[in-house]
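Much of what follows relies on a compact textual record of a protein's fold. With that in mind, consider the following protein and its fold in token form.
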Amino acid sequence: MSTPLHDDTLRGQVAIVTGAGRGLGRGGAVGLARRGATVIAVALEADELARTALLAPNGRIVEVALDLGESGAVDGLVDRVLADHGHVDVLINTAAMLPFETFQDTTPELWHRVLQVNLHACYQLAWRLYPAMVERGAGVISSVSSGAGVRPFILETAYVAGKYALEGLMKSLALEALPHGVAVTLTTPGAPSKPTGMTDAEFQALGDDARARYADELDVAEGFAWIAGQVDVALNGRRLDLHGLGALVRARGWGLTTHEALQRVERSS
């Protein structure tokens, strides 16, 4: 992997990144921190958040161990961040659950928990933060979708339903945000990524060949960081390949234009 890119474009900005303890969320948190942002890194496992913090510039990651599936978790998080930091400039939603169950075994309890984490938490965070972004005339809201957001899969009924709904939510919000200077985007991994539910310990327990099947989680760092630094609402409602975008930013630098990004790494599937 090439030398990571750093600059201070996001210095003074506050970002919330959910699912930041592993995978794409870890890459997003580290990427934004490398550009100078104070990153509120949210995840279920405190030990995984600590690993994320070690990979980022010192002092840029604020670790928050939190279960987004719990009632009141989102409001408590936002209240805490606003009390401590006063504002939020960037929201990156990556947290997700992917239980592999038949429809018959997808109980109401499981259904509601998956939708809470994968969809409702994204809505609640955006709903709390969007009005202040509109008032400032700037802000970024970006959510990770997947192939399951545009096509069905067996044994993933709840996950697919949530991702389809997330696509609609973000694309509709993107239209409303256009006149207010708030960039609202979707992303998709674009390369084989470590399964959502696989912990760091489980990943390390795999054999070398099995681990090699998955892309490095930090390959997406520059992609997320580039999105966080954009103010061009031409991105609104677009769906970008994260691994492809990361590689493109490393090749072109932070000056990568919206036009080239859309031409090269916009994805519809």
Q: What stands out?
A: The domain at 14-265 is CATH 3.40.50.720 (Rossmann fold). The CA atoms of residues 12 and 26 lie 20 Å apart. The beta strands are 14-18, 38-43, 61-65, 90-93, 139-144, 182-188, 239-241. The chain has one domain: 14-265.
